[in-house]
Fold this sequence. Notes:
By secondary structure, this protein is an alpha/beta fold.
Amino acid sequence: MTVPHLLDHPHHDGSALYVSNQTPSLGETVTVRVRVPLACTERGIHLRVVRDGEPRMSAAALVETTATDRWYEAQVLVHNPVTSYRFFVDEPGGYRWLNGKGLFAREVPDVSDFRLTVYDPAPSWMTGSLVYQVFPDRFARGIAEKPTPAWAQDADWGDEPIGSGPGVGTQLYGGDLPGIEQHLDHLVDLGVGTLYLTPVFPGRSNHRYDASSFDHVDPLLGGDEALVSLSAAVHERGMRIMGDITTNHTGDGHEWFVRAQADRSSPEASFYYWQDAEPGYVGWLEHASLPKLDYTSEELARRMIEGPDSVIGRWVAQPFALDGWRVDVANMTGRYADQDMTHEVARTVRRTMQAINPDAVLVSEHFHDSGLDMMGDGWHANMNYSAFTRPVWSWVVAEDSEVPALGLPSTLPRRSGHDMVAAMRDFDSVVPWKVVASQWNMLGSHDTPRLRSLVGSLEMVEVAAGLLFTYPGTPVVFAGDEIGAEGVNGEHARVTMPWDEPERWDGDTLDVYRRLVALRRSSVALQTGGLRWVLVEDDAVAFLRESPEETVLVLVARAPWGGAVLPEAVAPDALPVTVYGDVQLVGDGDGYRLPGDGPGVHVWRLR
């Protein structure tokens, strides 16, 4: 069986192989390249650029013909901070458009055009490594004795987390920052580059997204000194550390809100939205425990996000030295009714951080369609639920799974590889490539079911993880996934790390994660390369990751699918080298035969 259709399509993406300068200045001219396979019948290629809202067309020049492709080049004037473009493929009998979603023989909207931006991408320290998420209460205990607060109910370390109902937010296991520091060698062994902590500020819940103060670390976690020590220990090991902040709301026990309620003429009263209906103020998603912040208040902006003395600035500076923030509910921050200050808030937070640490990273939490918020001038990247997590889940989920679909009144459906890739391309195409290349790709987080509970088997964990570590973006692992932790929803999934119970460690799963982390770290193409889809079938997908230095072919199958033959032109210069899996890719006269077994993950270096 031959599958030539995707390799026979013209291709462009925003990576270095196709764009001469990925960080242009306003007014600069950038060369963009299009690869057109020899099988195509184009009469010419034109560039369509939107400048000041009006499209302009110019001819692309044929600059090179290789044994496999014709290469065209065109010039894009970066006249606007976000400059959109796509390609016009002139063919006998008609024309087609090439944009971020693919090739179309019909008219297409501008929303999926390629984009050049003048904004700096996320620094390479984040995108080049694994991010490891830790929920402090459930990772490790380092402080032997500590008081139990009035709001909490003690749990033994081996207890199963409450998944719903009373006790979900108050079940306290007692993990802390010294405990994390004591187990940093596990992160080093796994190949982690960035430690991301969910909130460390005091609150009245085990998750601490209901902060009662932004001025100090919760004493239950070890206080300020424990964060200073942990940060230093992380940096000594060559890793980075990121915090978690709720710019959208505080807890109803927050000192600002207490003062605001006590004195409606106080400066803090301007920090919140007030209403006549109960409870008298606006809460996040109507939760009275989480009063929403109003960024029309200049004093709130000054205290929270503006300048080195703000909450944002203080924790990025020494001695805490956080390397960035993940922002909770970023999609709602600054948005209420007819107000929309989200972009202004994001730009201010980024400006504040980078004045202190130019390499600081800003990541948003946005569960849904984040495209309009992700042009690159505010959030560097988003927690990529829509473009990665949900599509991959729907492809790998067990056929008999009863795990609920996140946030939806349904179980999670099992969908085809065509549906998975279409969803990925839909969401990826509406943001600049620099953002796609930085997005936080996850197979789960503290808000979701565990991967193992979704897929059931080690084989399917490997399939999902294979996509995680080979797809463009930043791979993120929730602590415990690498040892086979289970959980059917976000709360139930917040299990403890069983440091003293080796029987709860799945060594085979850990080995899969170690090998895939090492694979990604060894490959320039997997870290920074573009993305060219080769094969999309119901049960298998294959794609190329291309950089100027290296090309890698990835094949991931969820089930036996019959195999396919790719033309030998996919690797014209040398025999492919197997870098993951146990199948050698050898030409047989017709081309390279891809294995049709599954589930499985195969990766070959083509050059």
